[in-house]
Design brief:
The chain has helices spanning 19-29, 46-56, 96-101, 104-108; strands at residues 10-15, 35-39, 71-78, 81-89, 113-117, 131-139, 142-148. With 150 residues, it is α/β, with parallel strands linked by helices. The structure holds adenosine-5'-triphosphate (ATP) and magnesium ion (MG). Adenosine-5'-triphosphate is lined by residues 14-16, 19, 40, 42-49, 117, 141-143.
């Protein structure tokens, strides 16, 4: 076992107008993380939170919903260098095999940041250093976000 940092039971409760603040805090504590898996029931706010994460990184491309494309690629600049974020939505896929065929495996090993919705569609493709996040609804305007590596 190497020495690593493990996040455990870290959580936020936020309204929509606090989403960018929450996203900025997540980037800060997960600065060395590349792969983020967003768990949560339909319509709880996975895409909305991913958009906020992209806003904080000031991605250049318009961040749309990846509903019709499984993999969306965004570009941003950090320390004068051009970097990529992959926004991946596994909802329409069946399993690990379909995910690999769609090119998701290549994204996960690319070294670029990957923000993935519906990871439970292909749980076995995620490396151990994935951060798993769980989004839930507190009320119509309020969301609960919890980091857990279970
Ligand atoms: N605090 C909040 N954070 C995120 N979304 C919120 C919040 N409050 C209200 N919402 C609303 O909840 C909805 C979340 O929709 P979104 O598409 O992000 O969910 P999703 O989890 O990606 O759904 P799907 O499972 O279909 O991919 C949006 O309409 C958004 O405006
Ligand atoms: Mg979504």
């Amino acid at each position: 076992m190497g020495i690593g940092v493990y996040f455990c039971n870290m959580e936020w409760i936020f309204k929509h107008n606090q989403i960018h603040q929450t996203a900025a805090q997540l980037w800060k504590i997960a600065a060395n993380t590349r792969i983020f898996a967003f768990h949560g029931a339909m319509g709880t706010g996975k895409t909305t939170f991913i958009h906020a994460l992209c806003d904080v990184k000031q991605v250049k491309d318009v961040v749309g919903s990846p509903t019709f494309s499984i993999i969306n690629e965004y570009v941003y600049t950090e320390n004068g260098m051009e970097k990529k974020i992959f926004h991946i939505d596994l909802y329409r896929l069946k399993d690990e095999e379909e995910a690999m065929q769609a090119g998701v495996g290549d994204c996960l090993t690319s070294g670029h940041i990957c923000l993935v919705e519906w990871p439970e569609k292909a749980p076995d493709i995620f490396p151990d250093n994935t951060i798993h996040l769980f989004i839930g609804m507190v009320d119509t305007k309020t969301r609960h976000l919890k980091i857990s590596n279970i």
